[in-house]
Amino acid sequence: MVGTKDLIISGLLIVTTGMDMKMKRIPNWWMGVLFLIGLIDAFLMKEAGTYIIFCFGGFFFSSIGFFIGAIGGADVKLIGIMAGWIRDGSIWSWVFISLVVAACIGLIQMIYQRNFCSRMITTYQFIVHLFQGRTKAWKDGLPGAKPICFSICILIGYWIMRYVL
User: Fold this and answer.
1) Which residues are CB-neighbours of 95 under 8 A, at least 6 positions away?
2) Whole-model pTM?
3) Where is the Prepilin type IV endopeptidase peptidase domain positioned along the sequence (predicted)?
4) Is 69 helix (H, G, I), strand (E, B) or coil?
5) Which class for 114: exposed (0-12), middle (13-18), buried (19 or more C-beta within 10 A)?
6) For 17-72, what is each residue's pLDDT tens digit?
7) Which of 34, 66, 127, 144 makes a 20 to 30 Å CA pair with 117?
8) What Å distances lie between residue 22 and 17, 94, 133, 161, CA to CA?
């Protein structure tokens, strides 16, 4: 069953995805608006402390992706805010589904650009350098990687988690 909260979250994520696709970034003021909307909802539900804890947990968990260069700073903030909005164990399935959607989009991009094999070799070398502790690989990021709009992966992951599973 679709609740009012699900519709509001979906609408806000659609607006966020539109901003991300158009400007290739999500403004900080919009992140503040999303955080405040979630905080107001949490106060009304008498779960403000839980909201803050889940926001910080989502933020710190997703920061790993930022530090290895996989996602941008706005995506980290969006994942943290979404973790606060969801506030239950389904966060893990939502994050996993979002990552699978991102991997599928990246795979489709590689096949479409006809550079699948060379990208796999480059990605393998990048991961080996990361595990060997070479900071140059971490600082430079994955060479030649074309960024994707991760907020659409977050939106699709949310829809799959809420309406399919």
Assistant:
1) 61, 62, 79, 157
2) 0.80
3) 8-108
4) coil
5) exposed
6) 999 989 888 999 999 999 999 999 888 888 888 889 999 999 999 888 888 777 88
7) 66
8) 8, 24, 36, 26
